[in-house]
């Protein structure tokens, strides 16, 4: 499942030596570790038309409204939550999505628990934490992890989880534990930020392709949550793309036209710093950016100053400024890249004007290069539609879900993996996308 992580290529030994010495000679890469699996195959274009239907009203409570968007098997729940506290948000969410949460949570939990225990030695966790999982079990280990991060967390996030648990009548601790899993598993993913000359009409576009675990049933109940804070202490409106019961941010856009994307790094080089179990979990760093920051600079300074945890690549794009940055992220070091200084610099990951991008991982030549080719071959012509048709599907990235953000026009496109009992291809990038007009959604009142 955590894909790339396991496959340290045995045959790669030879290739690795060649690549490393070449990189050393050109001074491009310092002390290269292992590379991810070589996959140069290309997928077919996704020719399914985007669903542009309006959201359909389903149900309503005092602080929330539930809609569905999309058609057939590719429907997504779209929920609006309002309130003056995290608890208000959570209570509305847990009331309207009670059944969906009851279906997702036990299955996802059981699945991830088994996978993590089976894969313990491949997860690159600190020894003491591995032993803790082995001896005391995953729930206890995650409770201890929660204790380590609690002081960095926004209390309102816990209040929101409490609201969900109370309204949906599920165990609060299980909700918290589910949100600690992101720190110990690694999704391999892809991202880009494109602006100016890179896109048709100079739009600012961002890709978030999430290649995580499609066997946990998360995609059975995909949910887009639109938060409408009633007070500035809860920030401003933003959209979070996840699954019933999950309020961390992996994918989303804000009403300040900032977008966020992320890649878990399994193949770093020595330019990354240390990792730590103690700090603000990255799913809440991403959420903070959408909920509280107003500009790209705000977001970057938050990332620079927050107590960070693990090895990641982040993407932040700003539709107001018309630009994007990529961030090389770890506990002890952080580096910010634009199109002029993008890393890693290698013949398989060249720089592109008005673009930042990363395919699947840091040291992942074949996947990085495929994404590079897809962007440069269509340079200047790229729209969300073209990206869906002929970038993610051809590069083959975004198993679990894909978000394409049009940060100029404030529109988000989302696809999800095949749910249980559904037909058609498994991977989200091969399926139908739905269009969500956030101009309309951010403006919806109770
Ligand atoms: C990756 O696979 C392709 C196609 O099979 C091959 O041409 C290429 O040499 C391989 N690259 C590496 C680094 O192994
Ligand atoms: C709805 O939100 C308001 C604050 O806007 C809060 O006072 C009220 O208790 C909430 N109602 C429910 C049922 O959560
Ligand atoms: C876009 O392309 C034009 C024509 O090649 C060039 O003059 C201009 O500097 C480019 N703009 C940016 C922002 O790179
Ligand atoms: C997809 O992009 C490639 C270039 O990367 C191009 O040759 C091909 O015609 C495009 N296909 C579609 C369906 O747009």
From TrEMBL:
InterPro entries named among the record's database cross-references: C45_proenzyme-like, DCD1A/B-like
Keyword flag Membrane: yes
Protein keywords: Membrane, Transmembrane, Transmembrane helix
Membrane-spanning residues: 6-23
Protein name: Acid ceramidase-like protein
Organism expressing this protein natively: Adineta ricciae
């Amino acid at each position: 499942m955590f894909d790339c992580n396991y496959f340290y290529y045995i045959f790669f030994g030879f290739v690795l030596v060649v690549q490393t010495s070449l990189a050393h000679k050109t001074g491009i890469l310092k002390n290269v570790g292992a590379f991810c699996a070589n996959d140069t195959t290309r997928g077919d274009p996704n020719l399914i038309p985007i669903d542009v239907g309006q959201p359909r009203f389903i149900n309503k409570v005092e602080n929330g409204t539930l809609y569905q968007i999309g058609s057939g098997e590719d429907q997504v729940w779209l929920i609006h939550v309002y309130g003056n506290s995290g608890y208000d948000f959570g209570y509305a969410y847990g009331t309207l999505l009670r059944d969906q949460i009851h279906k997702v949570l036990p299955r996802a939990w059981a699945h991830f628990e088994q996978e993590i225990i089976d894969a313990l030695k491949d997860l690159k966790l600190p020894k003491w934490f591995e032993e803790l999982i082995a001896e005391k079990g995953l729930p206890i280990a995650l409770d201890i992890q929660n204790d380590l991060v609690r002081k960095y967390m926004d209390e309102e996030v816990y209040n929101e989880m409490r609201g969900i648990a109370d309204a949906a009548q599920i165990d609060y601790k299980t909700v918290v534990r589910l949100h600690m899993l992101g720190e110990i598993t690694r999704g391999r993913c892809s991202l880009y930020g494109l602006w100016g000359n890179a896109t048709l009409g100079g739009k600012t576009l961002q890709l978030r392709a999430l290649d995580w675990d499609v066997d946990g049933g998360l995609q059975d109940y995909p949910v887009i949550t639109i938060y409408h804070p009633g007070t500035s202490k809860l920030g401003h409106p933003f959209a979070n793309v996840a699954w019933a019961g999950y309020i961390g941010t992996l994918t989303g856009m804000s009403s300040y036209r900032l977008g966020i994307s992320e890649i878990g790094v399994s193949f770093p080089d020595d330019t990354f710093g240390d990792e730590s179990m103690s700090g603000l979990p990255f799913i809440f760093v991403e959420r903070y950016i959408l909920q509280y920051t107003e500009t790209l600079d705000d977001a970057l300074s938050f990332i620079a100053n927050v107590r960070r945890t693990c090895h990641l690549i982040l993407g932040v794009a700003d539709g107001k400024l018309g630009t994007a940055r990529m961030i090389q992220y770890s506990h002890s070091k952080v580096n910010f890249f634009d199109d002029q200084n993008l890393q890693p610099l290698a013949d398989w990951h060249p720089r592109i004007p008005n673009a930042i991008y990363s395919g699947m991982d840091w040291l992942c030549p074949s996947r990085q290069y495929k994404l590079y080719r897809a962007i440069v071959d269509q340079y200047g012509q790229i729209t969300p539609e073209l990206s869906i048709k002929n970038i993610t599907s051809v590069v083959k990235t975004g198993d679990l879900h894909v978000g394409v953000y049009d940060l100029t026009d404030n529109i988000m496109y989302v696809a999800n993996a095949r749910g249980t009992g559904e037909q058609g291809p498994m991977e989200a990038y091969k399926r139908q996308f739905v269009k969500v007009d956030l101009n309309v959604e951010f403006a919806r009142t109770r």
